[in-house]
Amino acid sequence: MRVGVVFQYGKDTRYSVNALVASLDKLSRVYVVLAESEEELLNTAKAIAKRGDLCVVAYSLLTTMLPVGNYYEKLRELVKLLRDIKCITIAGGPHVSGDPLGALRYFGFNYVFIGEAEASLRNFIQALRDGLDPLNVRGMAYLDEGNNLVFTGREKPINLDEYDPFPYWRRMVNPIEITRGCPYGCHYCQVSYLHGKQYRHRSVEKVVYYVGKVLELGIRDIRFISPDSLAYGLEVESRDVDLASIENLVLSVYNVARSSGGRIYLGSFPSEVRPEHVSREVVNLLKKYVANKSLIIGAQSGSERILRSIGRKHSVEDVVEAADVAVKHGFTPEIDLIFGFPGESLEDMNATIRLAWRLIKIGARIHLHYYVPLPGTPFGMKKPTPIPYEVKKEIWRIIGAGKGYGDWLKQEEISWKIVDLHEKGVIQPKQSKAPGFIT
Ligand code: SF4
After folding, report:
1. Burial letters for 145-175: b for 16+ Cβ neighbours within 10 Å, e otherwise?
2. What is the DSSP letter of 8?
3. CA-only gyration radius of the chain, Å
4. Res 437: pLDDT
5. CA-nearest residue, atom 2 of ligand 1
6. Is the CB of residue 94 below 6 angstroms from any atom belonging to ligand 1?
7. What residues in the chain have per-residue pLDDT under 50?
8. Which of 382, 404, 378 is nearest to 393 (CA)?
9. Per residue in 316-368, pLDDT tens?
């Protein structure tokens, strides 16, 4: 049987969908279509079904997508329409991995994928194509006849070197994922719970290969995806970086990029760095090879109490030192700070405001965020703390001085809407038993 797979393709999830498309594209008797609107998706699914092929419609979901414009309601209706025309509906991504039950019970997906899906989705599609039982595939969950969640078991973490990060043969590329997984497990962040706590790095040879593919398409800005760009080469949590591995990576990429007029961006969007990894040696090294003028440093709070409660494993002074070192070597530090953590007091927020001004005096800019409860994380069930008026006034002073920016107000709105989605039953994580939760 031939299988037609339609991906819902939007800006929020395109990098992860690109990696999945790359893992399916080379399968025989399988074709992949990307749909950018609901109408396109439905029409494509109908055309596949009419042709007599097996239709699979796939979504990658972020929790923050759900409340925007009541997307959760539209999605539920669409899944029903797709099931009515006998398409198999599947979903994965950070939200679904943290809340498989809600994805199955509320949205009505046939199957969900937990954690990274390059291998499990490919195995699933192959099983459908070959008429085998797809329920033997690991990394998936579904509802049994009693409406209970059945998890087929975790799939082995993939070796990044065995998978293309994007389908460059379709002229589709994005920042190259150099590292996956993070040992820190910060309590509000989905990375460690989605991809595991073991660092996995793409080898320098493979990174260079994909840099070549990006350059061949005429793209000159080379960017990377990593939970911490300065963790390249590390195996476990460490305050020291692996300078030799970082140098090997950056120098190798630089040598390839230079001949085509390419520019390297490392430690800037879309990856940040942990503050304790910013040292004189590493910044000196970056300075020689990268084009970015800023370094994005995750600080999150100016309160030692909050840093401990969210599991950051660095101190406020680590952040100040990182900003100082960055400025002394010609980078503008852009510091991420988050307000509204569960249990955050006025005193904690004031400590963050004081840290912000201290960093601004050094030469930093502040990237302002509001805490968002994400399913699958230890804080996934915890409500945000409202920001008191006097703290908001201080935040506006920072922005007014031209030293702060960010989507903190939009995130505040989304965060409380997510709380509401728990109450409406759209999100139904069973935190202690959720298969997406890796310890
Ligand atoms: S916030 Fe950064 S360091 Fe913490 S778990 Fe997420 S990716 Fe890792």
Report:
1. eeeebebbeebebbebeebbbbbbeeebbbb
2. E
3. 22
4. 40
5. 227
6. no
7. 431-439
8. 404
9. 999 999 999 999 999 999 999 999 999 999 999 999 999 999 999 999 999 99
Give all domains of the chain, ordered by start, each with its CATH number.
3-151 (3.40.50.280), 175-292 (3.30.750.210), 294-431 (3.30.750.200)
Minimum-distance ligand 1 atom for the alpha carbon of 182:
8
- pLDDT at 429 (0 to 100): 84
Q: What is the pLDDT of residue 354?
A: 98
The residue nearest atom 4 of ligand 1, judged by CA position, is: 186
DSSP-derived secondary structure for 118-187: HHHHHHHHHHHHTT--GGGSTTEEEE-TTS-EEE--PPPPPPGGGS-SS-GGGT---PEE-EE--SS--T
Residue to probe by mutation, ligand 1, list 179, 182, 194, most atoms within 8 Å of CB: 182
189 lines ligand 1 (CB under 6 A): yes
From 179, 190, 191, the mutation candidate for ligand 1 (largest count of ligand atoms within 8 A of CB) is: 191
pLDDT value at residue 193 = 93
- The verdict on the CB of residue 181 being under 6 Å from ligand 1 is no
Q: What is the 185 CA–ligand 1 centroid distance (Å)?
A: 6
Q: How far is the CA of 231 from the centre of ligand 1 (A)?
A: 11
pLDDT at 386: 98
pLDDT at 37: 95
In Å, what is the CA distance from 232 to each residue of 185, 380, 426, 428?
A: 17, 28, 38, 36
Q: 428 phi and psi, to 5 degrees?
A: -135, 50
Which class for 347: exposed (0-12), middle (13-18), buried (19 or more C-beta within 10 A)?
exposed
Determine the distance separating the centroid of ligand 1 and the alpha carbon of 212, expressed in angstroms.
29
Distance in Å, CA 270 to ligand 1 centroid:
13
Close Cβ partners of 240 (under 8 Å, ≥ 6 residues apart):
none
Pick the atom of ligand 1 nearest to 312's CA. Answer: 4
Q: Residues 6 or more apart from 176 whose CB is under 8 A from it? A: 165, 202, 207, 210, 211, 214, 222, 223, 224, 225
What is the whole-number distance in angstroms between the Cα of residue 108 and the centre of ligand 1? 31
Which residue lies with its CA nearest to atom 7 of ligand 1?
227
Q: pLDDT (tens digit, 9 = 90+) per residue, 357-397?
A: 999 999 999 999 999 999 999 999 999 999 999 999 999 99
Residue ranges in 204-299 assigned as alpha helix (H): 204-216, 243-258, 280-289
Ligand 1: does its nearest atom lie under 6 Å from the Cβ of 185? yes
Cis peptide before 100 (omega within 30 of 0): no
